[in-house]
Amino acid sequence: MYTYGVALIPEFFAVIEGFQWDDGNTSKSARRHGVLPTEAEQVFLNRPVVVLGDVGHSEAEPRYFAFGSTDAGRMLTGVFTIREKRLRVISARAMSRKERRNHAQATRP
C-alpha cells in the first residue's frame, strides 16, 4: 500500500491529506474500466466535482460518489471512502448517460 499527500476537496473533507492506493484498487479500475489512478485522482482535484453519499454501500464504513472530469475532459464517477487522512478510491469508471445529465444539472451556474 502506498500513500502520498496533495491538497484536495477541502470543501467536502477538510482532513484529507492525500490518496491511498494498493494493488487491488489500482488494477481493478484500470482492468475493468480503463481508468488509470492518475485519471481517477483528477476527478477529485478538478472543478466542478459533485460529491454524494453512497448510503447503500456504507455499512462497514462511509462511502461516497464523486462525479467530475479528468484533465482531458473525460467524465468519470469515482467511488471512495476516507481512511484516516487519506482518500481511498475504491473504483472509477466512465459516467453513465444519466450521471452526466445529473452532473450537468448540478454544476449549472
| Count of separate structural domains | 1
> What percent strand?
25-35%
> Any low-confidence stretches, pLDDT <50, length ≥5?
1-8
What is the 3D shape?
globular
Mean pLDDT: 83
Give the total of beta strands: 6
Query: SS-based structural class?
Result: alpha+beta
Reading the helices and strands in chain order gives EEHHEEEEH
Helix content: 25-40%
Sheet with the most strands?
A: 6 strands, mixed
How do the strands line up in the largest sheet? 1-2-6-5-4-3
Radius of gyration: 13 Å
Helical segment tally?
3
Q: N-to-C terminal Cα separation, in Å?
A: 40 Å
What does this protein structure show overall?
This protein is α+β, with helices and mostly antiparallel strands. The protein has one domain. It is 28% helix and 34% strand. It contains three helices and six strands. It has helices at 23-33, 37-45, 97-107; strands spanning 2-5, 18-21, 50-53, 63-69, 75-83, 86-94. The chain has a six-stranded mixed β-sheet with strand order 1-2-6-5-4-3. A hairpin with a 5-residue loop joins β4 (63-69) and β5 (75-83). The model is unreliable at 1-8 (pLDDT under 50).
